[in-house]
From TrEMBL:
Family statement: Belongs to the YjdM family.
Gene3D superfamilies tied to this protein: 2.20.25.10, SH3 Domains
Domain Protein YjdM N-terminal: from-to ranges: 3-32
Species of provenance: Halarcobacter bivalviorum
Segments forming domain Protein YjdM C-terminal: 46-114
Lineage, uppermost ranks: Bacteria, Pseudomonadati, Campylobacterota, Epsilonproteobacteria, Campylobacterales
Highest taxon, organism lineage: Bacteria
Name under which the protein is recorded: Alkylphosphonate utilization protein
PANTHER family: PROTEIN YJDM, PROTEIN YJDM-RELATED
Length: 115
């Protein structure tokens, strides 16, 4: 039997093969057989509400009214945000941006779609 690689994310030894992917049942990380492990660890993958992969500098549109703490105004549906920056957010706020009328703010990826 072939020795399967450990998970590059959590180092679990309980990985399994599904078609052309390796899958870790402990952390649900998936990676392709031919992908290098160092490449997967260093890249941050952020997807919008539709599943489209976002990159630094993309323009996005807000898809839900958002309340802003400490402010009486909020962010309305359809607000366009230009030139986003992707950051590692431990609470799900992976998009750093500036919104006209609000200022610098971090957004969650599930509340935006790529323009």
């Amino acid at each position: 039997m072939e020795q399967l690689p450990n998970c590059p994310k959590c180092n679990s030894e309980y990985t399994y093969e599904d078609g052309s992917l390796f899958i870790c049942p402990e952390c649900a990380h998936e990676w392709s057989k031919d992908a290098s492990q160092t490449e997967d660890e260093d890249t941050l993958v952020v997807k919008d509400a539709n599943g489209t992969i976002l990159q630094d500098g993309d323009d996005v549109t807000v898809i839900k009214d958002l309340k802003v703490k400490g402010s009486s105004s909020g962010i309305k549906v359809g607000t366009k945000v230009k030139g986003i920056r992707l950051v590692e957010g431990n609470d799900g706020h992976n998009i750093d941006c500036k919104i006209p009328g609000v200022g610098a703010i971090k957004l969650k990826q599930e509340f935006v779609k790529k323009s």
